[in-house]
Amino acid sequence: MSKEINLNDQFPKVPVWDLMGIKVVEMGEGTATLTMPVEEKMTNPYGMLHGSGVYALADSAVAVAISTVSEKGKQFFTIEMKVNYLEPVTTGIVEARAKVLRKGRIVPGEVDVYNENKLVAKAIATYIIVDEKR
Amino acid sequence: MSKEINLNDQFPKVPVWDLMGIKVVEMGEGTATLTMPVEEKMTNPYGMLHGSGVYALADSAVAVAISTVSEKGKQFFTIEMKVNYLEPVTTGIVEARAKVLRKGRIVPGEVDVYNENKLVAKAIATYIIVDEKR
Amino acid sequence: MSKEINLNDQFPKVPVWDLMGIKVVEMGEGTATLTMPVEEKMTNPYGMLHGSGVYALADSAVAVAISTVSEKGKQFFTIEMKVNYLEPVTTGIVEARAKVLRKGRIVPGEVDVYNENKLVAKAIATYIIVDEKR
Amino acid sequence: MSKEINLNDQFPKVPVWDLMGIKVVEMGEGTATLTMPVEEKMTNPYGMLHGSGVYALADSAVAVAISTVSEKGKQFFTIEMKVNYLEPVTTGIVEARAKVLRKGRIVPGEVDVYNENKLVAKAIATYIIVDEKR
Prior knowledge:
The structure is a homotetramer. By secondary structure, chain A is of the alpha+beta class. Chain A has a single domain (15-131), classed as Roll (Thiol Ester Dehydrase, Chain A), CATH 3.10.129.10. Chain A is 17% helix and 43% strand. Chain A contains two helices and six strands; from the N terminus they run H-E-E-H-E-E-E-E. The first copy, chain A, is globular. Chain A binds chain B through residues 11-16, 18-19, 40-46, 50-53, 55-56, 59, 75, 77-85, 88, and chain B through 11-16, 18-19, 40-46, 50-53, 55-56, 59, 75, 77-85, 88. Strand 3 of chain C pairs antiparallel with strand 3 (74-85) of chain D, so a sheet runs across the interface.
């Protein structure tokens, strides 16, 4: 896809991203695109990417999208998230494209997840934005 | 908690369980309890367990609960899942208690996730049961 | 079931309750039970109660449950709600039993919906509590 | 908006549509747009359209969108639906634009709900398609 963006300023080390190979490849005004390779360690007994992999990527994509429209020094927490799985994923790169649906303290975002140019999952997440020291 | 159950017959190797340390500790008629340790590799930038860890455990708990009421030789796929996060999790063991809400081809299940005896997340998932060779 | 509770103090006129026949029959600490008759006007083309009827009852049940643990002079808004439909409903009384899952400014609640002593739907809703004049 | 489409062939009398004033104004390949007026009878105690009104419109929009890609003689049932509320609705016309996300026996759809040209809600629903006599 496109090349990885260095987010060291906004996003310090994210252990779960390192574990799963999640990378930010695009950021816009209220949008973000993140990618993740399908690796054997994240598969289910049927050799497919486990739902939690899709979930981790989609959730992270919303967080990054929110970071583009939030003040510095805020923390974002997922209140809730829902994913619909449309197609199994077995190989290649998974790409999540997130979009902020509403700005404010409570921020919902939607995510489309693609694999090999096919829509494989759709998610909606709701975040709450809080001050860093709470 | 209780000791791990050997599920080799019903659940072959599950790579994502090995990665995250997910274990089945109890199974009943349409119910299952699974545990997972909070490990640094699954944390977010704030030092909390990432939502995808809670998700992986909860989703797996529903799958195991469904296995207790399904015929042999079936495969289970998550159609959709929604998680509400109630409290952050930073340490110890996370435990998910799942219950099948309705038997059939379309099987919804609910999950309560606990950490240190506190309810930290609540989820609903919908599975579809299909024949092994489809 | 039990007799209707007069909520004039806490719940002023609620037009949608009048339209659908929704009544509060029980309130506890963080819990509430509401009922609704299945009426022809709220049915779908198959003669079943439309999902929006179950939804209205379940959403209202969470609101009433929240009212039992909130300060006076607050307003409650649904941020999001998800319903899983387990069985069709065609006749009789529908009863929703709601429970607050976490107190605070962001309040998630769960609801079990019964018809003829059978679980027919399960829902999770997230509310935000705000001051009356915002 | 645009003029109402006559759906008597595909959609027989739908009582809940009559009650709420729901009308189909556009249908495409896997898409549909439905409208509903904000009427006092469907409001909450704050004078806003109750969530169940938005829900009824959004759910119906997905059903109509599915009808455009389904064989005749099938019935559609909502397995589950989730709505995120972005803005309160107090007046005018509400419009729901639904799109089928995947064809098959299990059909997820997404819906954007607008009021006065503003996105006020976003929903995802999952339907199951069954034969008429089951």
